[in-house]
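Email to the structure team, subject: Penicillin-binding protein model.

Hi all, the expression group asked for a predicted structure before they design truncation constructs. Nothing fancy, just the tokens so they can compare against earlier work. One-line instruction: predict Penicillin-binding protein, return tokens.
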Amino acid sequence: MNIKKKAQREIGPIGKQNRIMIAMVILSLCLIIIIGRLFSLQIVNSTGKYERQVDQLVEEVPIKASRGDIYDRNKNVLAKDSSATAVNVIPYEVEDPERLANTLSTKLGLKYEDVLTKISVLENNIVEVKTGLSQGTAVIVLSHNFDGVSVEDGTLYFEPIKIKDAGAVASAIAKDLDYNYESLYEKATRKENQAVLIKGKVDNALAQEIKESEAIKDADGDIQSYNGIELLDDYRRYYTNGNFASYILGFTGTDYTGLYGIESTYDNVLRGEDGVVYFQKDADGNQIPSQTKIIKEPVQGKDIVLTIDSNIQLMAEKAVKEAAATWQTKSVTAIVMETKTGEVVAMATTPDYNLNDPFTLDANFAATHAEDLVGKTDQEKLAEMYKNQAVSFIYEPGSTFKALTGAAALEEGAVTPETIVYCSGSIQIGDAVINCATGPHGYETVSDAIAHSCNPGLVQVIEALDPDVFYQYVYNFGLGARTGIELDGEESGIINRLPTANGGINEVDYATFSFGQGLAVTPIQMISALNCVVNNGYYEKPTIISTITKGADAESPKQIISTETSAAMREIMRKVVGYDSDMTALSEGYSIGGKTGTAEKFIDGEYSNTKYVTSFYCFSPVEDPKYSVYVVLDEPKAGAYGSTSAAPTAISLMEQTLNYNSADVNLNEAAAEEIQKGTIVVPDLVGQNIDFAISILKEKGIKYSIDPATTGTTVVSQSVPTNSVYDPNSELVLGVGDSTGETAGTVIVPDLSGLSIQSANEILTGLGLNLKITGNGFASSQTPAATTVVEKGSDVSVTFTP
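Reply from the structure team: attached below.
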């Protein structure tokens, strides 16, 4: 017995320790469960609970920030915000949805069905339905698996917008809880209790009229509500002169985000930061006005100052409209730039559109671009209208490019201004014959070849240059890449380097490159490149944003050609104006140099014989250029050429610009009198198509008429002998006839394999043959085959493949 007791005494403490350990383990487990539950409630699920509580008690309303203003260089306002109203509806407070939808759709120009949907939207936050549910009851309620129904901590919630069948939900849960069906149904179908935007930027007076028309009154005539309407302060973008500078400024969309132009490219600067207002709500979701608190004030956007001068912009817009009316164009674009800085002082295109009504297709644009808009949706038509031709229109520059060819050759020492070239009226390059549109000129200097716009002369100039070196100049002049001007939609153009089968340079393509064919540019690229030629060789990146906005971080200019080469090119381009009697008369009293261009358009796989792009670049004063002007006409009527259509517009605009800034620019009449007018040599026109002959005469400034006693399409005689000096007081009379006799004959079809469309067209046109095109890319097959003898005027069908 004693032994037993002793054993018990010895074993007792061990058993006690075991019991303590078990108790500690149980307590630890309980503690872990409690901690886990607290973590779940306070950390994992706290965010959602907090957000739901906030949603139930607080309404959040954004305050729209005012956008910054846009100014011209003289701080004239071009775009700014004006006070407006955002018309909102609180669906929960709407008493007569049909009446409200009818009012809003009628007065705001909206679709009735869309408005009715908006003002009937269900609550997208949780609605507290009933508290104190037991665990067992919660399990029963949740067993139905209804979307939008949840139970948390003994509280039943509905999320009306997620409930698919409110009647079924209310019926089932009414039985589960022995609860009122109508009350459950009302909460399951509760409308949104926060403001829903119907339309922003509404005129203040119209918004107030809408609100007052929806007033609901009691029997005593007192207003009980406004049928859910809530008006909030808003802003509307206002453009001071509708269509003014539309392609520069752009506009804002319905969400107040910048679309197109400066409004788009500088949207992050102009738009500012929105503010927020929080309204405290009572248990029924009604606002408590006395508790209104602004949490974050809106920050107005920053202003933008442009390089545009409104006065010169108006001149440019008037000039392009007059040119468009005179020449019945598809479009006309003009750019006026400060030559030394690259700052754009005017950029105008017609047709344009109304910035205060940008979603209406301009009638003039619809008429002139009808072919382009066939089969397009309304949105696609608007997208076409919004394109800024100054930076997005791609075209072959034609003869204006000759100034770049000349500058590169002079800079490399391949030629000098006095180097002699020869023009017989055409030049043979491989199998191709390249004609001169203004010759023959016989022996002439490189200076005169550029001034006379002589194609054979320029071919000889470019052949003196290493192709790799020449193409590098082209790239350095900024062609083939976007300029980076601060406008949307800029295109990079196309610079093709087409090799032969053995990897060498394609001599025909290289030759035609010298006079601006076989490449594509944009107006902003071309004026920037030509500015470099006359601005002592310095390439200035074009800009439309003033240094007031950009600060002093503008890019440094790069010098592409020397000051000496630039001076020589300025004198050559002075001759271009001086050698043309009409341009000389137009620019009398002003020191102006320039270069014309006329190019066929490539349409539906072939070069058009009726649709052209004409252009003219000019700068002044020649001795120290301050301004440059570039004008481009797209598809002017028949008879339009660079010298007759674009040049008068550009020269007139230049003169207006100089006069406007006469305090800054010396017109230098003495220098103007020293313009080298030169002499005009009469070209050989016999055998040429009459339209082509007329284009030559107009480019050279020779007055002409057609003998009324003759009919036909080919020149068979001319009253002034070939190569004689033209007397400006006389008139050259052309006799026309058919293509028989001297102008008829046969030719051998050349091998066109591997040539581009442009090159093939040049070769065949030079031989008097017509190109018929299938496909795109490079020539892979042809009919008739090479070496076949055919009559002049025959068609040659060529298939082009990538």
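Residues 395 and 598 are 11 Å apart (CA to CA). The longest strand covers residues 606-620. Ping us if the truncation boundaries need rechecking.
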